[in-house]
Automatic annotation (TrEMBL):
The modification Phosphocysteine is found at C53. GO terms for molecular function: kinase activity; protein-N(PI)-phosphohistidine-sugar phosphotransferase activity. This is PTS EIIB type-3 domain-containing protein. Keywords: Kinase, Phosphoprotein, Phosphotransferase system, Sugar transport, Transferase, Transport. Residues 46-148 form the PTS EIIB type-3 domain.
Amino acid sequence: MRRIFRGCGSGSVGGARRPGSRLCGVRGIRRDRSKRTGPGSARRPMMRIVVVCGAGASSTFAALRIRRAAEARGIAADVRAAGEQNLADALEGADALLVGVHLVPRLGSLEQLAIEASVPVAVLPDETRALDGDAALDLAIAIIGARA
């Protein structure tokens, strides 16, 4: 009798998959969930936002707040934090760059990197640190819309 692998479910060859596990039941093969097909696969394009600060610590918190605000609104967004050192790599494929207010003295060099990557730039307002991310998300949407 020939066995047919039917995917990553309890009915697949190789046993059941633990709930929440991303591994398939056979040989630990990972499924690529980014290439979905079939009904419901037509999604809005994902907006990619990069938030930069000096070392990447405060931008991590800002990115988390922006990501939560996007999820609450049902907006597909990939929000990533970056430090100044790895900004050039982080800008590849980005739609918007949000700069922490404490980096305004170095804004010229950051803008130059963004221009080379064709990414619009905006400075986060100082009060954004205390907000829940909605104001920063609105800012990103505004500069992405202005570019289009």
